[in-house]
Design a protein that fits this description.
Length: 243
């Protein structure tokens, strides 16, 4: 984290930046986490504040319908009350990450289900060698494997939801679901594309689009590697994040 905030004459002054900030060029308000002398703090920053710039990152091969930006904060001055009062230390950003990562565990299942539905419909409609593709054993094996993985991922997300409702959800459980369900969905998206043959590379069908977008999902809200390290630490009691 390179963004820092300091108090000056009854105001906060922010300097720094962050890459890959979703929707920053069209948002009215940015939530900025910054290091201060009092520890990590969160700030609400109107994006028209002098010194705040957001530059869209282009071109991209994933998440093309959305915009992510490089943001820069150069002497951004904010009133005292721009700071989030209850969020001090890493607890603030980590609680946001837990919510978003839990949501991704469900979202990935949705993407995989859409790929499954499209591939099944196509396999039933398209005939080769005088029978629907869905009638070939190799196609059925793909569909069955996907159905098993989707159902397992869905049950995992459902179980986490119930633990969340009961106030018993822990961050390493969310890592397991984010890692597993994103990995599951990207594999199904790539394989579902094969059932569509050449048509699978057109924009008419969603699996390749999902596969490309899931490359981003795999990276944001904790990469595969970072969630693996979180789980490795939980299992062994040893942190492998450094060295
Ligand atoms: C489409 C998109 C939207 C995003 N939206 C937002 C957003 O709205 N807000 C926001 O703050 N961020 C956002 N991000 C940023 C995202 O969270 C980061 O890209 C992600 O955390 C990875 O950081 P990095 O790109 O700096 O990669 P790096 O940290 O440079 O990592 C590169 C590779 O090295 C691996 N690696 C890093 N450290 C270790 C280690 N200790 N051991 C083993 N491997 C390691 C990583 O897993 C990865 O595979 C977004 C990114 C994308 C692509």
């Amino acid at each position: 984290m390179i963004t820092r905030a300091r108090r000056e004459g009854g105001e906060w002054v922010l300097d720094g930046g962050k890459r890959w900030i979703g929707l920053a060029s069209i948002a009215d308000i940015a939530v900025i986490w910054a290091k201060t002398d009092e520890g990590l703090r969160g700030f609400l920053v109107p994006t028209d504040t002098p010194g705040f710039t957001a530059t869209p990152i282009q071109p991209k091969l994933s998440m093309r319908a959305s915009v992510q930006c490089d943001i820069e904060l150069a002497g951004v001055r904010l009133p005292e009350n721009a700071v989030l009062p209850g969020a001090i230390g890493l607890k603030g950003p980590f609680s946001c990450l837990n919510e978003a990562r839990y949501g991704i565990a469900w979202g990935a299942v949705g993407a995989a289900r859409d790929c499954f539905d499209q591939a099944l419909a196509y396999a039933l409609a398209r005939s080769q060698f005088d029978r629907p593709l869905a009638g070939f054993q190799l196609t059925q094996q793909k569909l069955v494997n996907w159905a098993l993985e989707i159902q397992k991922g869905q049950l995992l997300a459902l179980h986490l939801g119930r633990l969340k409702d009961a106030g018993r959800l822990q961050h390493h459980m969310i890592s397991a679901a984010k890692l597993n369900n994103t990995r599951m969905a990207i594999e199904i998206a790539r394989e579902a594309r094969t059932v569509l043959g050449g048509n699978g590379i057109t924009l008419e069908y969603s699996p390749l689009r999902h596969a490309n977008n899931l490359e981003s999902v795999r990276t944001y809200e904790g990469t595969d590697e970072v969630h693996t390290l979180i789980l490795g630490q939980h299992i062994t009691g040893l942190s492998a994040f450094r060295g």
